[in-house]
Design goal:
Blueprint lengths: L1 E5 L9 E7 L6 E2 L4 E6 L4 E5 L4 E6 L6 E3 L3 E7 L53 H9 L18 H12 L5 H4 L22 H16 L2 E9 L1 H18 L6 H14 L5 E4 L2 E4 L5 E3 L1 E3 L2 E3 L2 E2 L7 H16 L13 E4 L19 E5 L3 E7 L2 E15 L5 H16 L7
Parallel strand pairs: 12-16, 16-17
Antiparallel strand pairs: 1-8, 2-4, 2-7, 3-6, 4-5, 6-8, 9-19, 10-11, 12-15, 13-14, 17-19, 18-19
Helix pairs in contact: 6-7, 6-8
Length: 422
């Protein structure tokens, strides 16, 4: 019996979604709950699973099409269907250097097949089932996925399987996993004329609209403080092994920064507020957003009730949300309700920036790279672990003096770190 697949409603305020990628082609078999297509909305990116087991007989919405919720986007013929069961011939993937034209309805049927996986060792001949995210991770590490034991449905390899396999190799990169830069390299451009033009992706269009709206809504001002991170660096170095052995978590700098910011927000509640017309609305709960960089852009998952968590609770939440963001497993609720945001350009070497406020919040904290620099201590030159922290705030409701007081207290907490980690 045919089953209609509809565009899901990813939250009460979400009215439409854009299909960014089909993970199956017409004629291919799909298992119940197996990822079928990827979507993006103004709130979240997500993989949408198949509602039934069967054969994908029709694709009714092409990649990059934006459709309203509950619109039928595909049809799956169930187990008893007499429709063809032979998978369509896999189309050769387009060269990464070729310009990408906007796909029409036919282009929606050329999603990357599961067989295009073992690029590092195609001679194995083993069919490997995995998601595009898993294949990207494998390509970045030169990994033959046939070596990985899948624990998902039907032996499907998931992100956890790959990361567990790569764990000994990826340990030095743990810090970037919290709020770092997207993996992979920038696409190489081959010019055939004086210009190369491609349309913005749906995610990039939404980011652009959000940034412009924020600039138009708030009076942005940024203040920058230099902070000595020596005690934080020492605490991380001293406890890293014990922390991982006890909790199974890589100890990064992000939980230190989040915990210090939370305690500072408790003393300066106006930074945990929003401006609504002529009113300032103070929020009782601290819902802490952490920007996570994906290949398609930034997303800001939120640690709800962060003020109720200790250091370990924050560390767990940071890792969980970052992993779910990169595996497209975030729900709409995971990215809503934030009251303050941290972004970390320092994970790839940025000294500091002037971040744009995540509306309707009134402030955002940018963290620069932590590096050893010469500083003056007691009239002598010393080498210390230093970082620049940049606070962008809404000058409509926060004055510069108050912003500097906020930063001075945050600086004091980090420079005199005392909180136990376990």
């Amino acid at each position: 019996m045919p089953t209609n697949v509809v565009m899901p409603q990813m939250g009460e305020s979400v009215a439409e979604g854009t299909i960014t990628k089909w993970l199956k082609k017409t004629g291919e078999r799909v298992e119940r709950d197996e990822p079928l297509f990827e979507i993006t909305t103004d709130k979240v990116d997500a993989e949408i699973p198949s509602p039934v087991t069967g054969v994908l007989s029709k694709i009714l919405a092409a990649e990059n099409d934006t459709v309203t919720v509950n619109t039928v986007v595909a049809v799956i013929d169930g187990e008893g269907s007499a429709e063809t069961r032979e998978p369509a011939t896999a189309a050769a993937p387009p060269a990464e250097t070729a310009p990408q034209a906007k796909p029409g309805p036919a282009a929606a049927t050329t999603a990357e097949p599961d067989e295009k996986v073992a690029a590092a060792a195609p001679q194995t001949g083993k069919k490997v089932r995995s998601s595009p995210l898993v294949r990207r991770i494998a390509r970045e590490h030169g990994l033959d996925l046939s070596r990985v034991q899948g624990t998902g449905l039907g032996g499907r390899i998931n992100k956890k399987d790959v990361l567990s396999f790569l764990a000994p190799q990826t340990a030095p990169c743990a810090e970037a996993s919290a709020a770092g830069a997207p993996g992979g390299q920038q696409k190489r451009i081959e010019f055939t004329g004086p210009f190369y033009t491609e349309p913005m992706t749906p995610v990039r269009r939404q980011i652009a609209a959000h940034m412009i709206a924020s600039q138009n809504a708030s009076a942005h001002v940024t203040t920058v403080f230099e902070v000595e991170m020596t005690k934080v660096v020492e605490a991380r170095k001293r406890m890293a092994h014990e922390f991982e052995a006890a909790e199974g978590l890589k100890l990064t700098y992000t939980p230190f920064l989040v915990r210090a910011a939370i305690e500072t927000l408790k003393l300066f509640p106006i930074f945990n507020a929003s401006a609504e017309g002529d009113n300032i609305v103070y929020k009782r709960d601290i819902n802490f957003g952490i920007a996570v960089a994906l290949e398609t852009g930034l997303i800001v998952p939120v640690i709800k009730h962060a003020d109720e968590k200790n250091f370990l609770g924050i560390a767990r939440a940071v890792q969980e949300l970052a992993e779910r963001a990169r595996s497209k497993q975030l729900s709409v609720e995971d990215v809503q309700g934030g009251t303050f945001t941290l972004t970390n350009p320092g994970s790839i070497g940025g000294l500091f920036g002037t971040p744009i406020i995540n509306q309707p919040q009134v402030a955002i904290l940018g963290v620069g790279t932590i590096e050893k620099r010469p500083v003056v201590r007691n009239d002598a030159i010393a080498i210390r672990n230093m970082a620049y922290l940049a606070l962008t705030f809404d000058h409509r409701i926060i004055d510069g003096a108050l912003a500097d007081q906020f930063m001075a207290h945050l600086k004091q907490r980090l420079e005199n770190w005392q909180e136990p980690l376990l």
